[in-house]
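fyi for ur records
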Amino acid sequence: MQRVEGGYYLDQDPTIQLPDEILAYILSFLTLKDAIATSVLSKRWKGLWAFVTRLHFDHKISWLDDDLIIMKEKSASERQIVAKKLEAENTDRFVRQVNRVLKLHKSPTIEEFRVCVELDENYKINIDEWLKFALTRRVQRLELYMAWHHIGPLPRSRRPYNLVLPSETVSVSDFKSLKSLHLKAVDVSGQVLENILANCPVLERFAVHGSLELKTFKLASPSLVLKYLEISWCSNLNSIEICNLTNLVRFGYRGPDMNLRLNNVPRLVELSISGRQIQQSMPDFLPKFSSCFSQLETLELDVNQVMEFGGFRHVRPPEFPNLRKLVLKSKSIGGCDKCLLGYTSLIKASPLLQKFVLVEHWYQPRIDHVRRVKKAGKWPHERLEEVELAGYYGCKSHQELVIYFLENATALKRIIVRPCDQSHDYMKLQLPITRDVIMMEKAARRRAKEQLRGIIPPSIELNIL
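which gave:
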């Protein structure tokens, strides 16, 4: 046996005999920082990180709070000036680190390339070079998130990175190896997107978020293998035309109302729609997708409480004869405890529904102790097996929904209650959870136990998470 430093033997390490390709594959499941750190383990591991095929560069802003703690004695304006300076310095440091890693990287191909950082047009040269690096190595999954912590429309004060093709470093044909492409806070025109998609013979997933240059979007090619398409918060978008995409399975749209044409998408079974303007006119906007209602199996909608008790008050709700899962996302505006039974009009229009999910966003929730609990008319739901209420706060409106399902869902097996604030995805955005939020969630969880455990029969499983 060959003894090494620290008293261990080489034959005690089962990875020593593994080929470089296997070790590099293992390192691909670590963060890039941890993968690079393995170089100090032994000579066998030194430099192997340079062959990993999944490159993720995620820039976080946790450094900001730590640096500003020592400046508590300074004024708010001084803190703001220092914060901007620190942010710029940290961003420049991040860009240099990415450039250095790419310079040292040795694998001829990569599976995944992801950059998640707050960058704009001022860093165009760097971003173009990163894009060239990924595409020349025949990347399969490419994600450019140039505003990682934004979940809605992007601020107009920024000048987003503009993807122009062809450029000095990249041409449209370079995208041909892509299976998945996500662009966030990247300005790109409809013509460029159409050219990219036309030159991606194996692309299955595509998403664009926050592009101000995108004004029209048209896809009409049965040869595309595209299965998942998402367009969100492109505020200048006027029209979307999707025709003859015979492989499309899921389509998601988030943003303002606009002209939309959806035709000959025979495999489309999942549809997601949301946006502030759309919430106010959902009964008018939803029929734009009427050509695919009969084939939908999953439907996600952003709604609001103006639907109230009457649901689709002025028009008859559409029919969804094959719908299995319905997800409604609602906002409790100003803490109003308005009746949510209007949502049941969509449930009634879905005779094969198996799962119903309500995701409610809190905005200073309060309980109306004066309002009486309302009831909706009887309507049997013979296939509904699971109900999930995310954002349960114990309001009258929540109790009304639970009672409705207990009285009408004859096949109900499970009720899942998530008494937590759904206004922000704290885990995804890595935002701090305040003490007030924690206290509200504890109170909501306590009320859920008090209100529901006494009325849920033993035959139905109750999960309060």
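The first strand starts at residue 54 and ends at 58. thats all i got for now
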